[in-house]
Amino acid sequence: MAKKRSKNEIDWTDEEEEIIWVSKSEIKRDSEHLKKIGAELIELTHKIWKKFH
Question: Source organism's superkingdom (predicted)?
């Protein structure tokens, strides 16, 4: 993690700190993929719930 120098300054030379830039398109693709997985999980949960009732 970046080390704080003073109240408002951060030392970004710390080798452990890495900034990863992500495009808006990649964020959108990931978001859509997570929505799909969530919908599949909900459907799966309903199917499992019906087995017990």
Answer: Bacteria
Q: What is the pLDDT of residues 1-53, one digit of tens each?
A: 555 555 667 666 666 667 889 999 999 999 999 999 999 988 888 888 888 76
Model-level pTM?
A: 0.51
φ and ψ at 47, to 5 degrees?
A: -65, -45
DSSP 33: H
Which two three-digit tokens encode residue 11? Answer: 């030392």
- Nearest-CA neighbor of 11 among 22, 3, 19? 3
CA end-to-end span of the chain: 50
Within 13 Å of residue 44, how many CA atoms lie on the same side as its CB? 6
